[in-house]
Amino acid sequence: MSTTRLSELARFCFVLAVGVLGIFGSPLSAHSNAKGSEQSIVLTLEKSIALALEHNRDLAIADQDRSKADAQITEARSGALPQLNFMGQYGRNIQKPVLFLPPGTPFNESGSPMKFEIGSDNLYNIGLQLYQPIYSRKVGTALEIAEIYHDYSEKSFESTMRDVVLSVKKAFYGVLLAQRLVEVNKEGLEVVRANFENVKSLYNHGAAAEFDLLRAEVQLANTEPALIQAENNLELGKNALKNLLAIDLKEEIIVQGEFTFDDVPPELLEQANREALARNPAIQQLSLQESILEKNIQIESANHYPTLGLVGTYQWQTQDNTFRFSRYNWAQTFTLGLQVSYSLFDGFRTNARTEQARVDKQRVQYARLKAEEGLKIQILQAEMRMTEAKKRIAAQEKSIGQAEKALKIAQTRYKSGVGTHLELLDTQVAMTRTQTTYAQAIYDYLIARAEWERAVGLPEKF
After folding, report:
1. Which residues lie across from 87 on neighbouring strands?
2. Nearest CA among 46, 45, 275, 283 for reference residue 158
3. pLDDT of residue 1
4. Which of 144, 232, 273, 457 has the maximum number of C-beta atoms within 10 A of its C-beta?
5. Is 241:171 a contact under the CB 8 Å cutoff?
């Protein structure tokens, strides 16, 4: 075979191979990329909060408490409804009861009392018993307590929900900070690497000293671990967020959000602070608990008052030894009446329990006052941290522009032989530090604002 034909055959095989790869390889690659994108979960702050509220275990427990409160209301209402009970009894007379007849009567003409057995060996008693409360100070109060406890459980659920939201915000902002620090360290590393290459080029042309080259090389070696540490912190932050959202640690997530400063309007700040005590769920819980204990005092003192109820009993009774149930002669009785119950003396038990209930209420009242003062301090601290972070943000915004400008001037001076390499290194470090401090200030403000929103009970869009 000639060389020309071999060349044409080789060209044909190459074209065929390219075509096969174009047909089968491209879709496979596209499918692989699509699969990779499907495996990554994109998380915004709103989606993160929604996932946490759906899967958080503490919130599930609080939701069960709400269901329990609903059941307690039904239980309390049952105290005012009629109670109907069925009863059945079988007895065996080991020794039958006896009846005594006095002497000197038509039924006993002897001079001494006469006795004889009555009844059968087997006795049966079946009946229904009805009790309807007419007057009881406990029933109405118990229903009021159950309804207040329902509100208490609702506030407990809201408080737990807000705690979950705050935890998610902190973790989410932590990931945004870590992402920003990775970007800052990458930019810093690129500047340091470019500086090293520039110094190396100048050194090779005899325009830079060996000392400058060594310093640039050392700085490059010191900057790379900072980037590695920032990337590790980012991975740890993502894992913490996954744990809160019940996402498997093996899943890839993409966190998207604005890592920017957004100030709270002064009018909103003042209004929220004024309404904080009335809107904070933790304070509301203590107030409701105080109301429950006030009702509990009424429950305990109710033992000083009588109870009145309607009682009805319908019974079937018989006694027989034959075990022929179809032939039993049943006697029916029906009674209806009123039942009054009143404790004349209980050893001062009611007084003691009433006093304990008063003490419990007083303790909760002190706890509420303490919590209100603590909340005021918490709000003030959050505001102070927000104000401090705003000042740092404003200062660092100016510093970033100055640092970037200083770095360009230092690079130009060094290339022109006017500036020193130490001057260039200082400006590079200053730029990275300024960007890091600026990112940290934004993070501190976002966290302080989230804590302030939690303290004042600002409505959330769940």
Report:
1. 127
2. 283
3. 43
4. 457
5. yes
* Res 13: pLDDT: 42
Tokens of 251: 């899943």
- Residues of the chain under the 50 pLDDT cut: 1-37, 462
Helical spans, DSSP H, in 205-275: 210-245, 266-274
Cα-trace Rg, the chain? 43
CA–CA gap between residue 147 and residue 279 (Å, rounded): 20
* 3-state helix/strand/coil string of 59-72: HHHHHHHHHHHHHH
CA–CA gap between residue 297 and residue 279 (Å, rounded): 27
Give the whole-angstrom CA distance, residue 78 versus residue 72: 10
With CA atoms as reference, report the closest residue to 116 among 124, 125, 107.
107
What is the C-alpha to C-alpha distance for residues 255 and 245, in angstroms, rounded to an integer? 13
Closest CA to 379 of 286, 446, 453, 445: 453
**What DSSP string runs through 429-451?**
HHHHHHHHHHHHHHHHHHHHHHH
Helices (H), 246-348: 266-274, 276-279, 281-301
Cβ proximity of 353 and 408 under 8 Å? no
pLDDT value of position 461: 56
Structural tokens at position 188: 């810093």
Cβ distance 59 to 53 under 8 Å?
yes
Report whether 358 contacts 296 (CB < 8 A).
Answer: no
- For 29, the token pair is 């690659």
Burial group, residue 93, by CB count within 10 angstroms (0-12, 13-18, 19+):
middle
Beta carbons of 108 and 60 less than 8 angstroms apart = no
pLDDT score for 28: 32
Hey, is 116 helix, strand or coil? strand
Nearest to 452 by CA among 69, 230, 162, 133: 162
Asked if 304 and 350 count as a contact pair (C-beta separation under 8 A), the reply is yes
Beta pairing partners, 116: 99
Q: State the residue for tokens 């946490």.
A: 52
Residue with tokens 């899943």: 251
- What is the value of pTM for the model shown? 0.70
Across 227-379, where does the E strand assignment appear?
A: 252-255, 307-319, 331-341
Token digits of residue 348: 């001062």
Residue 114 DSSP class: E
Report the C-alpha gap between 86 and 89 in whole angstroms: 10
DSSP 174-211: HHHHHHHHHHHHHHHHHHHHHHHHHHHHHHHTTSS-HH
- Measured between alpha carbons, how far is 440 from 187 in angstroms, rounded to an integer? 17
**C-alpha separations of 216 from 61, 186, 401 in Å:** 58, 17, 24
